[in-house]
Design goal:
single chain, about 290 residues, alpha+beta, Rossmann fold, Tumour Suppressor Smad4, six-stranded antiparallel beta sheet, 18 strands, about 30% helix, elongated
Length: about 290
């Protein structure tokens, strides 16, 4: 390492070539931005082809900063793997939606974030996240039969026309056929439930939004939201907030869950609790 590199802040970069903004050109631009801002990518891991760095690996390499340039699903896996680590994690916008990045940095650009990170001028936070027996959600989670719309979004992202048509039909069918989901503890929203619930973590509470696509017009609105690459922009209402919520299918059935976009399934009623992140995240000063 030369003298100039020795003065730069060293980091371990995690990226995912399958993420929305992780093509070769994007990675080269980010590497260039790191150099310009005074950051040195000392090590890198391409997940899931390569293993995520562990606290022991990072400590041995004398690295105190991990940058994750990937989508929310990869960010989720990386933060879980780094739980309990004494270093800091920098979440960067390397995916399609980048929900956690925007939660931490609002409308800051990538270059602005990297420059402040190099100068150690970003805030250090342990934000509130959602914990359950299925796993953690750092940006948010979706639950209910409406999670099938995520398959349509994935087909659109991959420009798979046949899969998009198939998944759209299935999403329509599941939204109409499967039992809706409701919040039973505390009792929030309507007793007959909703096809989709969004749980959004904040530092002091979990905020719940109910999504509904039950009429022809609302299905059209849902498809328009998909065309904008965010099925979560469909018709929805704020129904309340709490530090802990229990969700259940109206019919007592299993229901789908998306943890930061990663699919899982609940066998029955399931509690989701607000907890504190177990690793330090860099963030825009004063931003929540």
């Amino acid at each position: 390492m030369d003298a100039q590199k020795g003065q730069q802040r060293r980091l371990w970069l995690v990226h995912n070539e399958a993420s929305g903004s992780n093509d070769r050109e994007a990675l080269e631009r980010m590497d260039s931005s790191c150099v310009s801002c005074g950051l040195h990518v000392a090590y890198r891991s391409s997940f899931p082809t390569e293993d995520l760095p562990t606290p022991a690996m990072l400590d041995e390499a004398e690295i105190d900063l991990v940058a994750v340039f990937a989508g929310d699903g990869t960010v989720n896996a990386a933060l879980d793997a780094l739980s309990g680590w004494s270093g800091q994690v920098l979440v960067l916008p390397g995916g399609t939606m980048n929900l956690l990045y925007h939660r931490l940095f609002a409308d800051m650009t990538l270059d602005e974030v990297l420059e402040l990170a190099a100068g150690r001028k970003l805030a250090v936070r342990r934000p509130g996240i959602i914990s359950s027996s299925l796993g953690n959600a750092y940006a948010g989670l979706l639950a209910g039969p409406g999670t099938s719309w995520n398959d349509v979004r994935e087909a659109m992202r991959n420009t798979d026309v046949l899969a998009m048509a198939t998944e759209t039909r299935e999403a329509f069918a599941r939204t109409l056929r499967d039992k809706p989901l409701r919040c039973i503890e505390p009792e929030l929203g309507r007793a007959r439930g909703y096809p989709l619930l969004l749980l959004e973590p904040h530092d002091k509470e979990i905020v719940l939004y109910a999504y509904h696509a039950e009429t022809t017009a609302e299905f059209v609105d849902q498809l328009l939201a998909l065309a904008k690459h965010d099925f979560r922009q469909g018709p929805h209402d704020l129904i309340g907030s709490s530090e802990s919520v229990t969700l259940a299918s109206v019919g007592g059935e299993r229901f789908g869950v998306l943890l930061d976009g990663e699919p899982a399934e609940a066998d029955g009623p399931l509690e989701f609790k607000l907890v504190t992140s177990e690793v330090d995240l860099l963030a825009k000063p004063g931003n929540d």
